Structures are given as C-alpha cells and as structure tokens.
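Exercise 3.2. Students should predict the tertiary structure of the chain below and write it as structure tokens, then compare their answer with the key that follows.

Predict this chain's 3D structure.
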Amino acid sequence: MKLKKTIKAVLNLVKRPIRLEANISYLSPSNRLVGKNIIVTGGGRGLGAAMAERFVKEGACVLIAGRTESTLKETASRVGCKYLVLDVADVNSFDAFLREAKQELGGIDCLVNNAGISLHEPTFFDVTPETFDKQISINMKGGYFLTQKVIKEWVEKEQIGSVLFISSETGDMMDFRPYGFTKVAVNSMVQGLAYLFAKRGIRINAVAPGVTVSDMTGQGTDGNLYHKKNMLGRVYMPEEVAETACFLLSEAAGCISGQIITCNNAKSINARWK
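Answer key:
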C-alpha cells in the first residue's frame, strides 16, 4: 500500500507543468563583423532570424532569404537587414538569387546555410519517398549547390570567405529518419569542403544545436522551456546558438575550419556509462 501511494505521488508530480528560465550571457557588441556581407537562408524566423539580428549588431550587412515574403519582410524590418525570397529546394533559381543578393549587399563574404526542415516521421514505416526527397532536397542538396556557386566565384576572384552550415546534434547519433541522415551528410560535407579550400583562405564550419526553440521543433514556443532529454533540462534559445555562429564567422575564428561545434552540453558524447 505504501508503494502504491508513493508511485501515485510521483505520477501526480510529473503531471504538473514545469517551467524553466534560461539565463544566457552575450558578449558585448564589438563590431566583430564590420565589413562583412552575409546571406542567411531560412532567415525569416527562429535561429535564422536570431543569427541575422546578432550579425547586424556586430556591424555586418545581412540579407535573409526564405520562402515566405511576409515573414521575411517583418523580420528584416525588425532586425534592420535586407531580404530576398528563395526556395533552397529550387537549385535552378540560385544564379538569379545570387545576382540580386550581390547587388543588394555589394558582394558576398559569408554564407549561412540555415534553411532546413524536419517532418518528424514517428516511425520508420511512416517515411515515404516524398518526405525523404523533400528533406534531402532542402537540408542537404540546396545548401550543397548554393555553396558550390558561392565558392566558385570566390575562387575565380581569389577572394577569401566563410561558409557556416547549421547542422544538428542528430548528426552525431543514429537515426531512422531522413532528417538525421541529412545532418550526418552535412557534417561530412563541412569537413570535406574545409579541407579542399583551406589553402585558399575559405573557411567552412558548422554549428550543431540540440533541441532549440523553433516552430520546426515545436518546442518552447509557448514559453515552456522544459525538455527532459536535454542535459540542462530545457530547450536551447536561438540567441545562444547565434552567439556561437557569430564567433565562427568572425576573424577571431580565423584558424578554425572544418569544425562542427555541437551546442548541446555534451548530450551526444558517447560516454560508456550512459
């Protein structure tokens, strides 16, 4: 009887809403990105918008891109940046997009491949050819070929530059879903391209966040940051991941290339005592 009461008490406790606060520290703006023209795909909201805002505060000229013009326009007005409509799944649109982006920015120094989707298929059997292709196209293929075009021009003009991919902690883990596969591929792409272009002064890195507040993850948008599977017991805020992204694009990270910086407080480390 005593055991049953104890279990009931624990179950009742679990049912109670748990709310957490995230105490985040930022470096004071120090013009780390002055003179840099930066494109951020998927920049209308979430992490993309948070990065764009941080880059602007550090003195960069930023252009955000995405599929929904109304969202881009609202974010651009709030952040103080430029915007263009772009569907990264449409690789045939990249030439026209980059021409217009260069006109808006006056050139391109950094590319942030942030656009991505997860369709959250609940089981292996829920994955379809359509969901598979859509995630591969947006999360991997689009970033690959947009980067190809940007770096090709840098090489032709003997220009240095920096590319940042937004990967995920899932890139360090097994998965049965296409989303996870794309992030493993992104991590490989980052290292391969970094090694290929290192001697040309072109740096390629990635930030791999844990579960972060966004519409895509469906976590934290209601103000409840609790997430029992994260090491800190909460989801991460876009602003704290953006701080890492800002550092990687700055000249302070000039010796860093080919690195995937995982932002999840060691969650994906393969510890033998797990």
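Discussion points: Confidence is low (pLDDT under 50) at residues 1-14. The chain is about 40% helix and 15% strand.
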